[in-house]
Structure formats: C-alpha cells, structure tokens
Write a structure and sequence with these properties.
Layout lengths: L7 H12 L11 E4 L9 H16 L3 E6 L9 H13 L5 E4 L2 E4 L1 E3 L4 H13 L3 E4 L3 H8 L16 H13 L8 E4 L14 E5 L13 E3 L1 H11 L4 E5 L6 H13 L9 E5 L11 H9 L14 H7 L3 H11 L10 H15 L2 E2 L1 E2 L2 E6 L8 E6 L9 E6 L2 E5 L19 E4 L4 E9 L5 E8 L17 E3 L1 E3 L4 E8 L24 E8 L11 E4 L3 E5 L11 E5 L8
Helix pairs in contact: 2-11, 7-8, 11-12
The structure holds adenosine-5'-triphosphate (ATP) and magnesium ion (2 copies).
GO cellular component, one term: cytosol
Catalytic activity: tRNA(Gln) + L-glutamine + ATP = L-glutaminyl-tRNA(Gln) + AMP + diphosphate
EC number: 6.1.1.18
C-alpha cells in the first residue's frame, strides 16, 4: 500500500518527535485514544475517527487506547459497549499489544476514574478553582448570558471553599435531589468563549450506572472527564472533531489546574481538531438513526441500508474498503462533504480482485432450447476469476431449459438491441450460440417462455466456436439445476444528498426503492456458500451472503454494490 499522505496531524506528531516533546522513558511517544460514549451503535463517521486514531498509533509504533466515555448513566448500556468493541475489532484494530512477550490490554472506562475524578474536584474546590452553585437551572441559563454579551456571576460564586466542599460531600452522600446543586469551575463569566463561563464539572443524578451500579449519585461532566482521562492515561495527541475547538481552552485549563495540584506531571496531552467525515446520502445523528429503527423504517440497527458499522458489515462492506476511504478522504481542518460514491469506489476496488465470479438470474424468464438433447446435461466451465487463472475454474451444467433475465429478450427489439429477439443469435455465456425462434405468452399477452435452437458445434472453448460471430452475450443458469435463493437488492436509503441538512425533514427524502427482494436462480455451486462470502454476480454487481439469514445450503444474498456507479444516471 502507498505511504500515508502527510496531513497536519502527522506534521504535528513529526514535530513533537523531533523536539522530543513526549520522549518519556517508560511510555510510547505517541498515544492516541478512541473515546466513544456507549450510548449507541458506531457509524461510518466513527470509523473515520477509529482509522485516524488507531492508524496514527500503528504508523508511529505507538498506542491507541480504547476508552469508553461513560459518564451519562441514563443513556449507556453494556449492549453498546459490546457492539462497539466488536465493530472496532471488525474494522481491523486492536487495543491489545504484545510487549516483550506480555499482552497489554489498553481498554479503559472513564467510570473507572470516578474516584480519582472526585478527588480532583475536591482539590479544585479547595484551591478556589471550583464552587458549588445552587442557582435554579433557569437562573443559571439566564445568567450565563448570550453570545456577545457578558454573563452574570452566580450569587453563590464567592462561597468559601469550605462551604462548597461541605456541599459537594453532601451531594455525594445523596442528601440532595437531582439539579439542586452543581459544581462549576470558577473561570470567567465574561469570557467570549461560552465554554469558559464557569462550566459545570459535576452534577447530581440519582441513576444506576451500567458499570458502577448505585455507588454514585453524582457524575462528572463530559468536558471535565475527557481531558482528565486523557491526562491520566498519558495520552499525547487527543484528536477530536472541529466542533470541540471551543472546548480546547477548558481542556487545557482543567489539566493545567490539576497538574498544579500535583495530579499530573508534564508533558500533558494536547487536543487537535480535524474535520468530521460528512458523507452524502446518509445521516449519522444517533437520534435520527434511532428514529429509523424505532419507527421500523429499517429492520433494526444492522439493517444493510444503515450507515452503522453493524449494518455496513451485513451489507458486505469490508474493513479494507472503509480503511481505504478513511485514508483517501484525508485529514483536514475544514468541513466539507464527501460523495458517497467515493466509499463505493473504494469498495469496488477492494472487492474486484477478491470476489469469485458467479452467475445469478435475478428476474427470471424461461428459455427453452428446443433442439437440445434430453437427458444428461452438458458441463460448461468458466474461470473463478478472470484475472487470476490460478484460482481455477468453476463447472456448471447446461440443459434444455434455462433461466435468463427478462431484459435479455424483446419480442420487438428496440434500436441497438443485440440480445434475444426472434431471428437473432446470441451467445449463452460459457455455453453455446443460440438463435431465437419465438416465445410463449399467457392469456394477458405476457411473455412466459422464449424458444430457441442451439448450434452444437458452437460451444465456448471449442474450435467451432470461432465460426460464430454474435454481438449479444447473455448469462443463464440451468433451470432444473439452479439454486433458488432470496436476493435483496439494496439502494441508497435517501434520494437527497444531504437528507437532514439545514433543518430538513429527512423522512421526506426516503428512497421508496431502497430495498427490493427477489427470488433469483443461482449457479448450483453457490449452495456451498458460507455467511459473509462475497461474489461478483456477473453483470449485476457484488453480493454477500447475509450473515444473519443465510443457512447451510440456502444462502440469502445482499447486493453490496453495483458494478458501476449508476446513481442518478
Ligand atoms: P453523540 O451524538 O452522542 O455525541 P458522537 O457522534 O459524538 O455522538 P461519540 O461516541 O462521542 O459519538 O464519538 C466517539 C468519537 O467519534 C468522537 O471522538 C467523535 O468526535 C468521533 N466522531 C463521531 N462522528 C464522527 C464523524 N462524522 N467524523 C469523524 N469523527 C467522528
Ligand atoms: Mg460525543
Ligand atoms: Mg456528536
């Protein structure tokens, strides 16, 4: 693979390595982290962050910590922890590292730091850097002020550290109800940066936590927890998306104050922000994705149309394709949109050399070769992969009755149509040349079977075949031998490239044709397919055996992507 492209993060790391910024004897010089909140399923946007963070650790022989930012007891669940870990592993990354024959596990939970975070909050209060505020939520919001105008100090701001500390301890002991008091950093209510106007650091929540149970009824805020977790873990480069730029001053402030208190030694972590991945034709808001699931617009979080990693995996996206997209779209400082076709292009690039070829008839129509001998079928062969002869051949039978695609016959051909119509000859791919002689229709005039005759000396791969020059070349499967299978033809879930931007109602942009289920006929060898096997069905695209619904001998296929980018054309 090509060397990774330079970007501002790599430049920063290179500069830090050259300057020895994080040259510590017992720790790697580059430690990043991926810090999801376990409140939902990971999506393709998270994959970008995973690839950036784990990718930098890999390329610089450093470490990437897998950390759960689990400070919101009401929204978090073990189920989400499990699926997130699964998805990161599936993407090809690991938080385990072998060092001198020992396995290190770099899996962390912010909730494991609750004692330490509490201790640091007591320190900040004692040192006069934080106080307990007892304003109502409404007063607190009003006094925070608006952008462009100074806020007002809380009447509780000058409480003595001793009084605040006493209240904080009683908050912890469960003496108060949710919202009665809150701990705030004492910074500057006139700061032009709203995040510096005495941000909250601890709140009361009488709620059960998925890991700490009922031990706590106060929980640290994300903006307080995140920098301190980074510092406790000796993170060097704390990489997040641009919307956190305004949070950086508080990130630095809280680490600096706690370092003064002796909790950390220098060097401390620094935060860097890059542009989030915005892909067209998808939505990534957790709330809206949940709506799709709860309103049964899709069939669950792992519906193959979902941009979740569990959905994309089921759809047949590969970790390699997602990593390629992450690399190709780069790391920048300005927000933009990436066309979904970039991801599909990476997917085709990854699948083309891997996927064995196979034949599938998705919209079947009977073709009867009237002069074909009854009895034993004839064997046809074709390469498993046209570019890799070493992968061998596949063998499948041809017989008197075949399935072909409905679109490969026209009773009255349109201009430029080279496939089957009465009087025309085509090649049955890897088989014989046939000449169409007519068709059968039902009472309503629908074509129900096509008739033809074949030329016994025209078989592909035999000498005689060279005497036949035909323009059309169609695929087929032998009707008595074919494997009948459910095939799901997926398309984009939305018709609008930015379905939820600018306050639009994303449900108005749903693509009514995003899922079609057909009964297809497949080449018989496909009965040996295992879940998650991927094939290229010639002319139709790439298809994966559904990992949930496939059973032995009876695969169910999902179309991963078509062969060419035909969207909107
Ligand atoms: P929430 O809406 O609950 O805040 P989130 O999308 O921020 O969800 P987190 O679990 O907090 O989800 O995200 C984990 C990490 O993934 C964060 O560092 C976040 O910046 C990053 N991330 C999320 N979406 C994207 C995206 N579209 N592009 C790049 N990184 C992303
Ligand atoms: Mg978040
Ligand atoms: Mg978010």
């Amino acid at each position: 693979p090509a060397a990774p492209a330079a970007n501002f993060l790599r430049n920063q790391i290179d500069a830090d390595l050259a300057a020895g910024t994080y040259a510590r004897p017992d720790l790697p010089n580059v430690i990043t982290r991926f810090p999801p909140e376990p409140n939902g399923y990971l999506h393709i946007g998270h994959a970008k962050s995973i690839c950036v963070n784990f990718g930098l650790a890999r390329d610089y022989a450093g470490l990437c910590h897998m950390r759960f930012d689990d400070t919101n007891p009401e929204k978090e669940e073990q189920e989400y922890v499990d699926t997130i870990l699964d998805s990161v592993k599936w993407l090809g990354f690991s938080w385990e590292k072998e060092v001198a024959g020992n396995k290190q596990t770099h899996l962390y939970y912010a909730s494991d730091y609750f004692d330490k975070l509490y201790e640091m909050a007591e320190y900040l209060i004692t040192a006069g850097h934080a106080y307990v505020d007892s304003q109502s939520a409404a007063d607190m919001a009003a006094n925070r002020g608006n952008f462009g105008e100074a806020g007002k100090n809380s009447p509780f701001r000058d409480r003595s550290p001793a009084e605040s500390l006493d209240l904080f301890r009683r908050m912890k002991a469960g003496e108060f109800k949710d919202g009665e008091h809150i701990v705030r950093a004492k910074i500057d209510m006139a700061s032009p940066n709203m995040n510096m106007r005495d941000p909250a650091i601890y709140r009361i929540r009488h709620a059960h936590h998925h890991r700490t149970g009922d031990k706590w009824c106060i929980y640290p805020m994300y903006d307080y927890t995140h920098p301190l977790s980074d510092a406790m873990e000796n993170i060097t480069h704390s990489i997040c998306t641009l919307e956190f730029q305004d949070h950086r001053p508080f990130y630095d402030w809280v680490i600096e104050r706690c370092a003064e208190g002796g909790f950390f030694k220098k060097p401390v972590p620094h935060q860097y922000e890059f542009a989030r991945l915005n892909l067209t034709y998808i939505i990534t808001s957790k709330r809206k994705l949940r709506q799709l699931v709860e309103e049964a617009i899709v069939d669950g979080w792992d519906d193959p149309r979902m941009p979740t990693l569990v959905g994309m995996r089921r759809r047949g996206y590969t970790p390699e394709a997602i990593q390629l997209m992450a690399e190709r779209t780069g790391v920048t400082k300005s927000d933009g949109w990436i066309d979904y076709s970039v991801l599909e292009g990476c997917l085709r690039e990854d699948l083309d050399p891997k996927a064995p070829r196979a034949t599938a008839v998705l919209r079947p129509l009977k073709l009867i070769i009237d002069n074909f001998p009854e009895g034993e079928p004839v064997e046809c062969t074709s390469p498993v992969h046209p570019h890799f002869p070493e992968r061998g051949n596949r063998v499948f039978p041809i017989s008197k009755e075949l399935w072909i695609e409905q679109e490969d016959f026209m009773e009255v051909p349109s201009k430029g149509y080279f496939r089957l119509f009465p009087g025309n000859k085509v090649r049955l791919r890897y088989g014989y040349v046939v000449e169409c002689t007519g068709c059968d229709k039902d009472a309503d005039g629908n074509v129900i079977a096509v008739h033809c005759t074949y030329f016994a000396d025209s078989k592909s791969g035999t000498e005689g075949s060279a005497n036949y020059k035909v323009k059309g070349n169609i695929h087929w499967v032998s009707a008595p031998h074919a494997l009948e299978a459910e095939v799901r033809l997926f398309d984009r879930l939305f018709t609008d490239p930015q379905p939820d931007s600018g306050g639009k109602d994303f449900k108005l942009a749903l693509n009514p044709a995003s899922k079609e289920v057909v009964t297809a006929y497949l080449e018989p060898g496909l009965s040996a397919t295992m879940p998650e096997d991927v094939y290229q069905f010639e002319r139709h695209g790439y298809f994966v055996a559904d990992r949930v619904d496939s059973v032995k001998g009876k695969p169910v296929f999902n179309r991963v992507v078509t062969l060419k980018d035909s969207w909107g054309k």
